[in-house]
Amino acid sequence: MNMAAMPVTIVKALRERGYEAAHIQYVVNRPNRLAYELDRIVPIGGPANRVANQTRTVAEVLDEGFDIFHFWNRSLTYRTDYGAMSGMDIPLIKARGRKIGYRFTGFDLRLPSRDLAVNPHSPFRYDQRPFYDEDLVKAYQDFLREHVDRFFVQDPELGQFWPDAEIIPRALDLDTWRFVGVERRDRPRLVHAPTNPTAKGTPFVLRAIERLKAEGLNFDFQLIQGMSNADAREAYRQADVIIDQILIGATGVLTLEAWALGKPVVVNLRRDLFEPFYETNDLPVVNANPDNIESALRRIIKDADHRLDLAKRGRALVEQRHDIRQVIQRFMDVYDDMHRKPARTPTGDGDLRYLAMQMQRAERLEGETGRFVEAYRATYRRERAIAPLRAGAAASDLGLTLQTLRRETWPLIGRDIQWLRRRMQRRYYIWRAQFRNFRYRNWRRVGRTWRRFERTFIRPIRRLF
């Protein structure tokens, strides 16, 4: 995956230094929504063609003779929800003598249970739903441990969740991200560009903006969503302050781009992780979270000197730590080391347990599909039984038609009702456990939420039993 154009930037730098490198991007319906630069585009079509196109891609790149496969977020055979035997190309690639690197990029590693344990402002505390089935993702990661030769993350925030991973920071081509800086304006322009508003804390940002405008502060605000990369970059160039995420606690790509342009950036950075990482106790950011976002924005809007200072120090830091000309050397050293060392071989049963879980999921899906087909057939038989009545059959045929309808459909309906009861009962206990374990700060909101939950879900479920 071309995560914010990072992989393509690395591939271009490798080619400039004599490496044979390629980046593959799968596309479905929207080939390139944000208009990032791409290398190889592989249309995989809809679900019916996905498996065939993905496996053909694996065969093609193996035939080309690449020695190292560096996956970002997913391998070449995958489904977004980690189902359908996702990642099973990895042992097949390893069996052909190739090496594999794997880079986690965000919420594929930042799972709810992990993030809630270490992050007081985790997005999962504020209406962010889990992205994936956590048990399945953990099984997938145990599977990766058995076969992947080297793991990578981009910063210490992700590194805390995978201590064995090597931290190689994100990289920018600073020749295309030239310094712009800011001017001393009485009416500064603020820009916020969330790709995932809930995870980035956008509701808190918008609420703070409304309150500051109500105070009469003199500033402009632009919310950027669904805009192409080129148009968004131009908006960043015109900005005086750029607001990144305020929940995750790490630098996003937008933070680096703001630093490169010489723009002050408002972001939530965990000082315990990033001050050692950047070897400074004075990070060039306005550090904000849901508790202080309003005061943080008020200060940066009023203080032009502070904006000018952050602009210069941010550019200096990105030149020092995120310039592609420095970061690419890290990748070259790692790839050369991977090529020299023997490949990792499985030593545990993580891959076998993952395979078993995927097969169990497939069997459950097959069972649910079978029930759907059976219900469809029952509907078809019912329609055939009712057809004579619709056609105006004689009254003497009515009793026989109703008997046939009941005999053929009632057993199926009864089984469906029993299956639905069991499923809803399990779901009820899961909901109840999740609700009891969930912590809200506003207990008045808990009361309202519980009453709505009980009225909507629990009472209807109880009536079934």
Describe this entry's structure for a reader.
By secondary structure, the protein is of the alpha/beta class. The chain has 3 domains: 3-171 and 331-340, 3-Layer(aba) Sandwich (Rossmann fold), CATH 3.40.50; 189-322, Glycogen Phosphorylase B (Rossmann fold, 3-Layer(aba) Sandwich); 367-463, no CATH class. Helix content is 55%, strand content 9%. The protein is built from 17 helices and 11 strands. The protein has a 5-stranded parallel beta sheet with strand order 8-7-9-10-11, with helices on both faces. Strands 3-4-5-6 form a 4-stranded parallel beta sheet. Helix 11 (271-278) links the parallel strand 10 and strand 11. Helix 1 (6-16) crosses helix 14.
Give the topology, please:
Blueprint: H1 6-16, E1 24-27, E2 40-43, H2 47-63, E3 68-72, H3 89-95, E4 99-103, H4 112-118, H5 134-147, E5 150-153, H6 156-159, E6 166-167, E7 189-192, H7 197-200, H8 202-215, E8 220-223, H9 229-238, E9 241-243, H10 253-261, E10 265-267, H11 271-278, E11 286-287, H12 293-302, H13 304-321, H14 324-340, H15 350-390, H16 396-437, H17 443-463
